[in-house]
Amino acid sequence: MKTTGYVRALSVICCGLLVVACGCSKKKSETPSATSKTETPALLPASSALAGYDFVAPPQFITLPSELDEVSGLATTPDGRLFTHNDENGTITEVDAATGSIRKQFQLDGKAASKDFEGIAIVGKRFFITTSAGVIFEFAEGKSGDAVPATAYQTELSTKNDIEGLCYDPATNALLLACKERAGKGFDDVKAVYAFSLDSMKLIPKPRFLLPMAQLLAASRGDEFNPSGIEFNPRSRSFFVVAAEGKSVVEVSPEGAILGQVKLDKFHRQAEGITFLGDGTLLISDEARGEDPTIARYPLRAAP
């Protein structure tokens, strides 16, 4: 009888240990590893052109020369060459999109040499660059070492709007200017994008887009979404707006509707410029911020 009781007790103890072990094993299997990616980009319907890019896996980063520490806007020519600019002077740089090396540099002449430049756009053979105060300069591509003349176009925008992005909209033959700060009088809790007509060479007073902050903050990092770049996607015919403060990219329809949004991973220190290569590759530039300036490459996914 004593032996039988001992065996029963031992059995109960073993069963209890087995249950505890199973529970621990289950908890361990439910805990993601330290290296696994658990965050899923938000507001990304399959119909969004953003779904064509992998924002979960780290992109390929191309290191730029240190003289491009203040790299800002990005733009490509019709023949596929990549240009950028420094945001503290009028130096225009052609960059090798595969290696990050400098192919050539030229300078804007006169008063345009020392402005706070925040975005670049290329329309055929015409180059445009904007200041944070919304002054647009037009110039032609120069040879290496050239100082090229530039024509200035004033707009009704100012440093209160803080223009941080410039791109070309072929459907309306206009330049689009993304405001980092104020959208304008009477526009609260929104971010604005204005249009500058290349037909009249004047700013259209009514904003082209008004993007509700409530929507923008739903898939941004922190409590901010301050646009730092904008680009037309020739494949989807929509616009991609990147925010350094908020670390995310939003897709906007030609009518101004938000089609999708993704968070950028934290390895983007300060995403300033955005553009596309001919094969659909998405490029995003980051200022140095104490490290190396870079361009991130996001290849377009192959069609299923």
Quick gist of this model?
Helices cover 11% and strands 41% of the residues. By secondary structure, the protein is mainly beta. The relative contact order is 0.16.
Based on the model shown, name its key terms.
4-stranded antiparallel beta sheet, 304 residues, 21 strands, Neuraminidase, mainly beta
Describe the structure.
This protein is mainly beta and 304 residues long. The chain has one domain (49-293): TolB, C-terminal domain (Neuraminidase, 6 Propeller). 11% of the residues lie in helices and 41% in strands. The protein is built from 2 helices and 21 strands. The protein has helices spanning 2-30, 213-216, and strands spanning 60-63, 71-76, 82-86, 91-95, 102-108, 117-123, 126-131, 136-140, 147-148, 151-153, 163-169, 174-179, 190-197, 202-212, 226-233, 238-245, 248-252, 258-263, 271-276, 282-286, 294-298. A 5-stranded mixed sheet has the order 2-3-4-5-9, with no helix packed on it. It has a 4-stranded antiparallel sheet with strand order 1-21-20-19, with no helix packed on it. The longest helix has 29 residues, at 2-30. The chain is globular, with a radius of gyration of 25 Å. The chain starts with a helix and ends in a 6-residue tail after the last strand.
How would you classify the helix and strand content by structural class?
mainly beta
Q: Indicate the low-confidence ranges by residue numbers.
A: 1-40
Beta-strand content estimate? 35-45%
Largest sheet: 5 strands, mixed
Number of spatially distinct domains: 1
| Large-scale geometry | globular
Mean pLDDT: 86
Global Rg: 25 Å
Termini separation: 70 Å
**SS field, number of helical segments:** 2
Count all strands and give the number: 21
CATH class: Mainly Beta
CATH topology: Neuraminidase
